[in-house]
Amino acid sequence: MEDEMLGGRQSPASAIRGRGTAENPPNRFERLIVVEDPDSGLGSQWENEQPPRLETLYYRDPSRSIIAFNDSPDLNFNASLNPYRGCEHGCSYCYARPTHEYLGFSAGLDFESRILVKTEAPALLRKLFAASRWQPQVVAVGAATDPYQPVEGRLQITRRCLQVFAEFRNPLAIVTKSALVTRDVDVLEPLVEIGGAAVNVSITTLDRKLSRIMEPRAAVPNRRLEAVAALARAKIPVGVMIAPIIPGLTDHEVPAIVEAATRAGARWVGHIVLRLPHGVADLFEAWLQRHFPDRARKVMNRVQSLRGGRRNDPRFHSRMRGEGVFADQIRDLVALSVRRSGLREERPALSASAFRRPPDPQLSLFEPAD
């Protein structure tokens, strides 16, 4: 019986091709849930064959605001923009998964297969920047879900938002796992000239096989490094975020990632230690049991050692880096690797001093003709 349980939870389901998780747990806010009848045979229908590919569904997001604000002491920005809710990259460890539960979805498969698209994002952003209440400041683009997930190649919502940033000269910092960011170099260049843009490319591992099962629809590691190199050649300030570092699974790769980032032209390297808020802990532990049963216990023990004996610690100042011996070792390893590489640890200071509100074209209708 113990072999069929995961710390009191059911054994993980079979992997689904192209997905980071195979579970779709109940929404923590819902009182009613559907539980399969164990005698129906439905729960075991994929035991001896590959589950079918799960189609991604897209929904129009009706949000009437586009910038989210925070006062977290752990973040170096107060404002953020996410053109998409949910993320098809499907990273098994994604800390943003629980945000999908606010929409009535699951943090599991729903998060990576039911994507809300903010089709009005560029227009909402232009309206906000044109309003006198907007205080020019750095906006983090993609702080929760990736702004360059696969559907962006077709919809170009992020690109059109960047064009609004450039029009108003409002500074931004992008975080992404996608090489698609290089498509928008032409939009970023004018912002760079006024100290108003930087890009952070997230690299979790250099192991292509591990990346494929951990971040199934994100760019493979070498494509991300190629994106860093392309941005560096274009003089776009670019750094690498080793995020998250997974103790017992990817922490040994830190020196190699820093070295590869340096060769590619990254100007800085940062890091975040694995966070497992709410239902992400169960999803990630199931993922470990599915793909790395031989080291699942070791990884979770290391995670708990960073979090005061728990799988997650939500406290400010601790949640992003952890505490204890292993947290200190990871921090020292990153710092040593960065020093050996010759990189600067500081990100560029972005400025909002060049912000402007272009003249309203509607006002020209009231100007006297020549």
State the gist of this model.
This protein is an alpha/beta fold. It contains eleven helices and twelve strands.
Can you characterise this structure?
It is a single chain. The chain is α/β, with parallel strands linked by helices. Helix content is 30%, strand content 13%. The protein contains eleven helices and twelve strands. The strands form three sheets. A seven-stranded mixed beta sheet has the order 4-5-8-9-10-11-12. Strands 3-7-6 form a three-stranded mixed beta sheet. A hairpin with a 2-residue loop joins strand 1 (5-6) and strand 2. Helix 2 runs parallel beside helix 4 (157-168), helix 4 (157-168) runs parallel beside helix 5 (185-193) and helix 8 runs parallel beside helix 11. It is globular, with a radius of gyration of 22 Å. It starts with a strand and ends in a 29-residue tail after the last helix. Residues 1-10, 42-46 and 363-368 have low confidence and may be disordered.
